[in-house]
Specification:
α3 crosses α4 (56-67), α11 (274-286) runs antiparallel to α12 (291-297) and α18 (451-466) packs across α20 (507-522). 39% of the residues lie in helices and 17% in strands. It has three domains: 3-246, P-loop containing nucleotide triphosphate hydrolases (Rossmann fold, 3-Layer(aba) Sandwich); 258-303, no CATH class; 321-522, Nucleotidyltransferase, domain 5 (2-Layer Sandwich). The chain is of the alpha/beta class.
Length: 538
């Protein structure tokens, strides 16, 4: 084994590749770098007109991608997944790579395609490549540009470069030497990927590259490629022809730490200022609906839901030491989200206080779940339910169905301790228990979970969290549920929770929203229970 090949071993599949006869030709990678820096110039922004001088991470990527060779002299890698955040200069790099593959890849009759979800997106890479051609006399003399059909033709070797997208026909039946997917996470389905993946089967060293940021659809072709890339990178999957480069923040990384920012943004400080990035970060942590977008586009993290409503960062700031013994006999309102017989039931008490005097509203939640369901979840790796039960945050009822009588008994116990002024509940599946609670002396009100009833209290809850006017006592079950909430928005901006979109339970948040809704609509006084006794809120 030569010194360069030995030094190039970085991943488990590299050793397997060597066993298959692969070697590392440093000059092959250097050839790509030299072509880009010699012939390509930026055409937009702060670097317009300047040579495309590759950053260290880009040189490392290109060297590794193009230097590895098979025993027959062709490229080792045939499929590449490159995952980086927005504003790292990846589209410009794709344009430069496209030109190299068109002109200097020693492929007669090369057929190179840039691909995106829409023709407009795909044209971004093409337009930059065309501008690079225009700015270099040697390229412009050899390459014809056809703006109408988005095609570059390299006359010396009868090669061409063109654009494909989902909104235009013509992808079938192609004989492509290289395909570059820009923002693969935007592909609505796998159809275009599958059509083009095997379009180079007749070529001696076909290459398909996807360069993308993370997304949220974990059923997508992009997530499939991402997971495959991670498994190849770790050695879990043996595939010596698959190349991986991913710059991302892990789930364990502190998103407040600038080291995390640089980890996911290797061009930070060059293509985007640290000051601008910090502004994006501050906006994300202060506007919860923007946190997922920040994680995806700025930290290159795949998220589980399309739009997390509440920021966990802000949620975690809404707790402080408090002795719940102080709540005894105090007035409160309640929300009851009664589950089906095999799911979580949530009952949340909301104690209105006076945040202006440094006394945040207190949230006291209670949860029930059938014990057999908790055991079944534990077998699948979700052990938190049983842990929360041992900590006293979750009641497990016997068997595989929720015991509504147990819940009714507990609510009556709570009614003896606290002054529960009213209980709001979703009428779905709650008629019998609501009737029984009314018979027990409680005032129960039905609240349907639509825009009209949920919008105002949900926005009020969001405001309370952002302004730290809430103390949820660091309840771990409620925290988990807060991280699962996905919302629907109507055309005029009203919101409501969507239980179907979320991957996990949100019952406690729904119950809390209903309780806050009752507080909004019926409590006229701004007095706190700390200053007043015997208030009739209703």
């Amino acid at each position: 084994m030569d010194r360069a090949t030995k030094k190039a071993i970085q991943e488990p599949n590299d050793k397997l590749a060597i066993a298959e006869g692969c070697t590392f030709d440093t000059l092959a990678g250097q050839r790509v770098i030299e072509f880009i820096e010699r012939f390509c110039k930026h055409s937009k922004g702060q670097f317009a007109g300047q040579p495309f001088l590759l950053l260290p991470w880009q040189k490392t990527l290109l060297t590794r991608l193009f230097s590895w060779k098979r025993a027959d002299g062709t490229r080792r890698f045939r499929v590449a997944y490159i995952g980086v955040s927005k504003k790292q200069g990846k589209s410009c790099m794709v344009s430069a790579i496209s030109l190299y593959l068109l002109v200097a890849d020693n492929e007669s009759g090369a057929a190179v395609a840039s691909v995106a979800n829409t023709r407009k997106q795909a044209s971004i890479v093409f337009d930059e490549a065309a501008n690079m051609v225009r700015q270099n006399s040697q390229l412009s003399q050899r390459i014809d540009i056809n703006e109408t059909i988005k095609r570059l033709s390299f006359k010396d070797k009868l090669s061409n470069y063109h654009v494909f997208s989902n909104d235009a026909p013509g992808a079938d039946g192609q004989n492509l030497s290289a395909v570059l997917f820009d923002e693969l996470h935007r592909q609505p389905n796998r159809k275009l990927w599958d059509v083009l993946k095997y379009s180079g089967s007749a070529r001696r060293q076909p290459l398909i590259i996807s360069i993308t940021t993370a997304g949220s659809d974990q059923q997508s072709i992009c997530y499939e490629q991402y997971k495959y890339a991670k498994d190849v990178q770790s050695g879990l999957i043996s595939d010596t022809a698959f190349f991986t480069f991913i710059a991302e923040a892990s789930a364990a990384d502190d998103i407040r730490d600038p080291k995390t920012w640089h980890k996911a943004n290797p061009s930070l400080g060059v293509t985007q200022s640290i000051e601008d990035f910090a502004k994006d970060f501050n906006e994300a942590i202060n506007v919860p609906a923007k946190e997922n977008t920040f994680r995806q586009l700025r930290l290159n993290q795949w998220t589980e839901i399309d739009r997390r409503w509440l920021s966990l960062t802000k949620w975690d700031e809404c707790t402080s030491p408090f002795d719940i013994e102080e709540l005894k006999g105090k007035p409160c309102v309640a929300g009851l989200d009664l589950s089906s017989t095999q799911d979580v039931t949530a009952f949340v008490l909301f104690f209105p206080c006076d945040p202006k005097k440094g006394k945040p509203h207190i949230v006291l939640p209670f949860f029930w779940l059938p014990e057999d369901i908790a055991k079944a979840r534990a077998l699948k790796g979700f052990n938190s339910l049983q842990t929360w039960n041992k900590q006293g945050h979750l009641y497990l009822t016997d068997g595989d169905t929720v015991d509504y009588d147990f819940i009714r008994h507990k609510i009556n116990e709570l009614g003896d301790i606290y002054d529960i002024q009213q209980i709001d509940c979703d009428p779905w599946n709650c008629t019998q228990l609501a009737t029984q609670l009314i018979g027990d002396g409680f005032c129960v009100n039905n609240v349907r979970q639509g825009y009209q009833s949920m919008n105002e209290p949900m926005k009020e809850l969001e405001r309370m969290i952002l302004s730290k006017e809430l103390n949820h006592l660091a309840n771990p079950v409620l925290r988990w549920m807060s991280s699962n909430v996905v919302i629907d928005t109507d055309p005029v901006g009203n919101i409501k929770p969507n239980k179907e979109k979320g991957s996990e339970k949100i019952d406690g948040i729904v119950a809390l929203v209903m309780a806050i809704g009752r507080k909004i609509h019926t409590i006229e006084s701004t007095d706190s229970y700390y200053e007043t006794t015997g208030i009739d809120f209703f």
